[in-house]
Amino acid sequence: MKSKITPVCMAEEYWANSQLSAVRHFGEIDFNGHHYIIVNKEGISVLELSDPKSKHYAKDGMAIPAGEPCDLILADFQPYYRSLGRDAFLEVLKEKPSMDLKVLKRIYKEKIRK
Hints:
The chain is an alpha+beta fold. It has helices at residues 12-15, 23-26, 46-50, 78-84, 86-95, 101-113, and strands at 9-10, 28-31, 34-39, 71-74. Strands 1-4-3-2 form a four-stranded antiparallel sheet. Strand 2 (28-31) and strand 3 form a beta hairpin. Helix 4 packs across helix 5 (86-95). The longest helix is centred in the C-terminal third of the chain and has 13 residues, at 101-113. It is globular and about 40 Å long. The termini are far apart.
């Protein structure tokens, strides 16, 4: 039996043109038994950026400005994305694209400690 790979991070170019495009209206979605959220390049969720009570509220009305990265990530991985930044976070995924989620979390924890 073939193992199922769970995507950890999807670029907007991918999810915006798929059945996941509905997430743009809600900021989060449950997909294949996993909870995903939209984040900006700093790892701040679009929900935080849109909430007037949040310290991350985008006062100009643009939660994520056009042309800025807008990734759909597994919600459990948001702390790693935030701590490492988008580039370092994606670098790990490029090196370990089909890694078990528990192992991948350990790798991210190690990278944060360095």
